[in-house]
Amino acid sequence: MTFVKKLFSSLRMQFLLIILGAILPFFVLSIYNIQHMSQMEARNAEVNAQEQAYIAAREFETVIQNSRHLLYLAMDDKKIVSDRDYCQVYAEAVPYRETAITNLVVMDSTGKLICSSSPINIPEGLGETDWFEKLKLGQALTIVPFDKNWTAIGVYTTVAVPHTNDIGLTDGVIVGLIDQNWIKTVRNRISLPENSTISVIKKDGTVIFRDPYKLEYIGQKVGNEFTEAMSGSERKGSFSGTGLDNLERFFGYSRLDPIYGGDYVHVGIPRDKALGSVQDLLVQNILINLIVIAMAIAFASSFSGTRILRIVNQLVETSKKIAAGDLSAHTGITQKEGELGFLAQTFDATIASLRKKDEERQAAMEEVLRERQYFEMLVRHNPDAIAILDASQNIQTINPAFTELFGYTLKEIKGKNLDKLINTPVTLPQAVNLTKQVKDGGTIRIISVRKTKDGRLIDVDISGVPIIVNGKQMGDFGIYHDISALIEAKQVAEASARAKADFLANMSHEIRTPLNAVIGMTNLLMDTHLDDTQYDFVETIRTSGEDLLTIINDILDFSKIEAGKLDIESTPFDLGDCVESALQLLAPRASEKGLEMLYLIEQKVPGAIVGDPTRLRQIIVNLLGNAIKFTERGEIFLSVDAHPLNGKSFEIHFSVADTGIGISEEARSRIFQSFSQADTSTTRRFGGTGLGLSISKKLAETMGGKMWYDSEIGKGSTFHFTIKAEAAEGIRKQVVADAMTISQGKTILVVDDNERNRLILEKQMQSWQMNCIPAGSGFQALEILKRVNTIDTAIVDMQMPEMDGFMLAKEIKEIPGYQKLPIVLLSSLGHLEKIEDKKIFSAQLAKPVRPSQLFETLLSIFANRPVVVRDNQQAASDIDPEMGSKHPLRILLADDNAVNQKVATRMLERLGYRTDLAANGIEVLQAVERQQYDLVFMDVQMPEMDGLEASRQIHRLVPQERMPRIIAMTAHALQGDRERFLAEGMDDYISKPIKINEMARAIQGTPALSIDNKGHKIIPEAEMPHVNWDTIDSYYRVMGEDTDNFIIELIQTFIPNAQKLLDDLKTALKSNDISTFHRSAHTLKSSSASLGAMRLSDLARELEMDSTNDFPADSSGRIQTLQTEFDAIVPEFDKFLKEKSSSQKN
After folding, report:
1. Quick one: 266 and 395 in the same domain?
2. Do residues 918 and 927 lie in contact, with contact meaning Cβ atoms separated by under 8 Å?
3. Number of separate domains in the chain
4. Residue 914: its pLDDT value, please?
């Protein structure tokens, strides 16, 4: 005892102990660190085992699922149980090898074998097992409980379904035996060290499968650590334990879904493999620490000190805390100098580093596990087909959607080149190029075609994305989205749209053809003697038919736009002429409603542009027409401006403003929709199809522009649209240089109560270098004239409140110095003829006034020349509205554009003519066959059949004595066109835009000998046949089948009836019965005309007209003439009846 005390009281021993105490923490710390690392590695091994067990469990569920599909197919085959030979053929032929099933077995309801894919001995008593009984009672699917009889022949598990006969009773059982080969798929997908195991264990601990496979293990019970782990409610977990081969392993498990048996899949990783590196490190650390201790003992023999001991004690205490697991401990030593201070700081730093690394490791492990699971789930459950490729573009893995889309499993294509696998020789070069782009670090997306396993071609949306890790490209993703259904739906929709457009076009044509006939016949009817009521009825039919024709034309335009078949011309034209022709067309409607129509073309607008004048005029007419329709009072203002783009290109801005009803907030969202108006009351009140704005907007967009609007309820609306066009050369009329010299410096007094109109005229005067003095009323104008004596001309509006233009002009003539002042009167159409004394004015111009017309008028006044209004359309005073009655003609107008039809129709109406319309050459031929025309205005370019072909066909079909005069209508006729038109059978041509004086000239050149003063066609009696067989032929064209019987019955009825009517005429004349006389003549006229007996019909008509009040002179002789004509008709009809009778017998 004394020796021990002496030994430990020795300074050397004490220092030795201090040194040992100082070294001991490092020893403990290193052992703890290694132990901690061992725990972490063990935990990682358990997590890895759990993760692999989850993958294996899901793979097994897939195996069961795929096997179930095969069994369901067999279950639906009713012959598989009743016909043993058929069963055997079926079992051997069914593609069970594409699943995990190794043998397909069919048994009857007692468990006896019917057939199997491979030879097998059925265990005795199988038919009496619980699971077999449950199947016979109708259970849909059974995972057969573990049975060593099956396991002995290498079967892992068994899936069975019942088979029912035609009356629903169970007559057999179909069993799929799944062998152990499925586990190879799992081992290919996961990486396990040597001696790792994959087992399937029931909840009671019975092993029903183990890999590596040994029969003696099957059916054994595992240890308590297994059953305890599986006793909880968790579907997955991990633990460490001893396997059946007495090796310690880290186990992870995952429970199968109850529908797949509810067993547990275990993956075991050998403990020595998981912790081998840590154990080696432990040995190394022990050796190092022993060496350090030996060195410390040597060092202790020469050093000692209490200070060192104190520091070492603190280190020891801290080490104890760390050993207890408290990584938050530190030494608390503040000394910084010397080795001991450095040792203490290093010790604390080591602890802090260890603590930080432990935290980072834990966080990193959790993040890696979370990201890995997220990534795998994202790829696996992604609906798009995904292939992950390595740096050599070979397939590493695919998701189930890839298999579903292309038909390949991963086993079939792993390691193969994706481009060569799913491409055709046509698409392969494109695919290789795209792959190169991704390999170079780019991303791609393209729609193309790829090939499936069975050779089908599918449309796919392809994306390629590189996989870059730490700046290095490891491979890439190939993503394929099946768009076959989308492409098919798009094609169906496009076909539907084309069919709809074709249907609309065809129906429009089919409706328009008889409608033109209706309008034409009403025009003929209006040429006959009608009383006022009848005339109103016929006029209603005609105007309604024309309105319907307008609607049909709108629908046809709309269908062309929808089908993308609307052609836009590109031709130079005068923009001012185009705008003004639209204004002239609608000016009468505005005047009827008392609306002021104003327009302004800004100076920077090019005079001529290249584009489609017809379609541009169509938009303007539609917007102006809407403005007039929805405006009850006020004005319509059209303005045109331009913004230069580049070179000769301009964006031309049109706006149409009105003072009408405006557009409500709720209606604005649908204002440009097809077949839509502001509301249903608008349609009822104002009419229309609701297509005009939709068509106009699409036309504007087709010409490179857009359309929009501003509106305020109760104050009006402004519709804007733009087009893009290039300026053209050499079309706008140039003003001669001396004309500007004449106008320069002149002072013009403009008197108009409309402020906007004053501003427009003021701008025009300024552009002509004239001075303008505006006045808002007649009284203001008189005050100005009394103060200013330098006014050269006054421009006066007719319609002004308090003092109109005529009264103002008379007052001006009373002012000293202004008795001879030239005054130009502006007035709406229809008001010029009401002026009492037109001589008081130097010129009268109809509004809206064309700038060129006004300028020429002012130049004539300044040059003391007679004022001659030169315009594309002559002033109303120069047009003879009685031309139609003085020179009566039947006129057909052929043009496919509705706006052109309206323009030409209005011009002809102003000349006193009604017009029939046709939209193409086919309709022209139908109209000419239907009735005779004196004059045809024929557009050269029309769809279906153009004007030239129609002219050739008319000359082929119509006799020369009935040949109408044909006038071609064409835009910008070139040299040589006239000769070409004449060669095709046309008589002359007029240029577009059409001018009324040219139409008048063409009319005057047409002979009127074929029309009498009542508007009826006159054919010399000697030339008129007794029967016009064209009438009979028309029935064949219209009625089709069974026309012969109809004509025969008609003639057989007509002959006795006509003779009776002749007898009634004679009887009525003798009995002085004028009523019967008149009625008999009328009936004979109608019935004769229905069979083409036109001479008889005309004679009866004349007798009818002359017997309105009394018997005509020489009634008896005229009846005899009728009898003679009838007698001449009967032989022709008899001959016809005989020919038809003979042909029917043959």
Report:
1. no
2. yes
3. 7
4. 82
Which residues, at least 6 apart from 137, have a Cβ–Cβ distance to it below 8 Å? 170
**Mean pLDDT score of the chain, rounded to an integer?**
78
Q: Give me the mean pLDDT over the 1120-1136 stretch.
A: 88
CA atoms within 13 A on the CB side of 40: 18
pLDDT digits over 291-321, tens only?
766 676 666 555 544 556 567 677 777 777 7
Are both 762 and 692 inside the same structural domain?
Answer: no
Task: Look at strands 170-179 and 101-108 and give their pairing.
Answer: antiparallel
- The two tokens of residue 318 are 């801290």
- For the stretch 532-583, pLDDT in tens is 667 666 776 776 776 677 677 767 666 667 666 677 788 888 898 888 888 8
Are 1033 and 1091 contacting, i.e. CB atoms less than 8 angstroms apart?
no
Residue 366 burial by Cβ neighbours in a 10 Å radius (0-12, 13-18, 19+): exposed
Are residues 598 and 697 located together in one domain of the fold? Answer: yes
| Shared-domain flag, residues 200 and 122 | yes
The Cα 1146–Cα 1140 span in angstroms is 10
Strand partners, 480: 385, 462
**Is cis: bond before 212, omega within 30 of 0?**
yes
* Total number of residues shown for the chain: 1146
240 within 8 A of 163, measured Cβ to Cβ? no
Residue found by looking up tokens 């292939």 in the block:
387
Contact status, residue 946 vs residue 921, Cβ threshold 8 Å: yes
- 813 within 8 A of 840, measured Cβ to Cβ: yes
Strand 596-601 versus strand 635-644 pairing type: parallel
Q: Where are the alpha helices (DSSP H) in 301-388?
A: 306-323, 338-380
Give 814's DSSP letter. T
Radius of gyration of the chain (CA): 53
Both 501 and 380 in one domain: the answer is no
CA distances from 834 to 591, 863, 878 (A): 14, 29, 16
From start to end of 551-595, where are the E strands? 571-574
Local structure of 7: helix, strand or coil: helix
1046 neighbors 1108 (Cβ within 8 angstroms) = no
Chain centre distance of CA 1093:
59
Q: Residue 760 burial by CB count (10 A; 0-12/13-18/19+): exposed, middle or buried?
A: buried
* Weakest-pLDDT range from 521-535, 653-667, 742-756: 521-535
CB 742 within 8 A of CB 692: no
The pTM score is 0.43
pLDDT band at residue 640 under the 50/70/90 scheme: very high
Host domain of residue 268: 39-274
Token representation of residue 816: 């000293």
Is 8 a domain residue?
no
Return the CATH number at 1048. Answer: 1.20.120.160
Greatest mean pLDDT among 629-638, 860-869, 895-904, 1025-1034: 629-638
Residue in the block written with tokens 């499993």: 409
One domain, residues 387 and 268: no
Q: Do residues 912 and 1050 both lie within one domain?
A: no
CATH number at residue 615: 3.30.565.10
For residues 147 and 131, give the distance between their C-alpha atoms in angstroms, rounded to a whole number. 11
Beta-strand pair 248-255/264-270? antiparallel
- Residue that finishes a domain, picked among 240, 274, 308: 274
CA 117 from chain centre, in angstroms, equals 55
SS3 869: coil
142 pLDDT more than 70: no
Least confident window among 432-446, 561-575, 837-851: 561-575
- Give the strand pairing for 571-574 and 596-601: unpaired
Flag whether 794 is in a domain.
Answer: yes
Average pLDDT over residues 920-948: 86
Would 871 be classed as within a structural domain?
Answer: no
Decide if 11 is inside a domain. Answer: no
Give per-residue burial for 1107-1124: e unless 16+ CB within 10 Å, then b: beeebbeebeebbeebbe
Residues 137 and 243 in one domain: yes
